[in-house]
Amino acid sequence: MPSSAKAHNRIYNTLPVAKEGLPFIFLGLALVLLLLYLESIILTLLALLCTLFTVYFFRDPERKNDADERAVLVPADGRFLGIEPVEVQDSPLGIPAVKASVFMSLFDVHVNRIPVSGRISEITYHPGRFFAANRDKASKHNERNRITLETGDGQRIIFVQIAGLIARRIACWIKEGDEVQAGQRFGLIRFGSRLDIYLPANSRILAQRGHKVKGGQTILGYLS
């Protein structure tokens, strides 16, 4: 594994929750203690439940895969929304492509993972609106972070973190020029969101619409 990937895993793989969740968890614990001190039992229980859900939401489980190097992993947990062809004039790849989409509900793991090994050639952030992430127009109009990756044999794929209706923060832990490994953590979107991935049109897609998928583990398909 490249040194940058090793450093990344040391930083983001030391706790069972993503570091972006720690302020929310500590705030929740402080509120629980305060309400307990004030002897407000019902409010204490409510605050405790909210804190436990926050821990659950920001969970960051270990994931292992032994997929073939041509395999493209699903970059996020959630429900597979399906695929659609993209004509060259609308393709961010500059060639005919297919777009695959995963919707993450509040109950899914929200840590995002690299779909295939390669080098990050470009990262572009686009401010935008906050439509529901399971709607098609979210891909074009919502706040999003677009990442371009080049594989070792020169192919390009693009994956896009897209904010949702109540998701108001996109975290990206990689930078341009990084060498990354398939399944490596690369970011997180808070509180419900979507992730799109663009592959060359001749890629073979295995995932099916409506299926539940696991980021960094489920095989989306194969590059040609």
Task: Write structural notes for this entry.
With 224 residues, this protein is of the alpha+beta class. It folds into two domains: 19-57; 66-222, Glucose Permease (Domain IIA) (Distorted Sandwich), CATH 2.70.70. 21% of the residues lie in helices and 33% in strands. The protein has helices at 3-12, 22-37, 41-57, 138-141, and strands at residues 71-73, 78-86, 97-104, 111-113, 118-126, 144-150, 156-163, 170-172, 179-180, 185-189, 193-200, 204-205, 212-213, 219-222. The strands form three sheets. Strands 9-5-6-7-11-3-2-13 form an eight-stranded antiparallel sheet. Strands 1-14-12 form a three-stranded antiparallel sheet, with no helix packed on it. The chain has a three-stranded antiparallel sheet with strand order 4-10-8. β6 (144-150) and β7 (156-163) form a beta hairpin. α2 (22-37) runs antiparallel to α3. The radius of gyration is 18 Å and the shape is elongated. Residues 1-11 have low confidence and may be disordered.
Break the fold down into its secondary structure elements and pairings.
Elements: H1 3-12, H2 22-37, H3 41-57, E1 71-73, E2 78-86, E3 97-104, E4 111-113, E5 118-126, H4 138-141, E6 144-150, E7 156-163, E8 170-172, E9 179-180, E10 185-189, E11 193-200, E12 204-205, E13 212-213, E14 219-222
Antiparallel strand pairs: 1-14, 2-3, 2-13, 3-11, 4-10, 5-6, 5-9, 6-7, 7-11, 8-10, 12-14
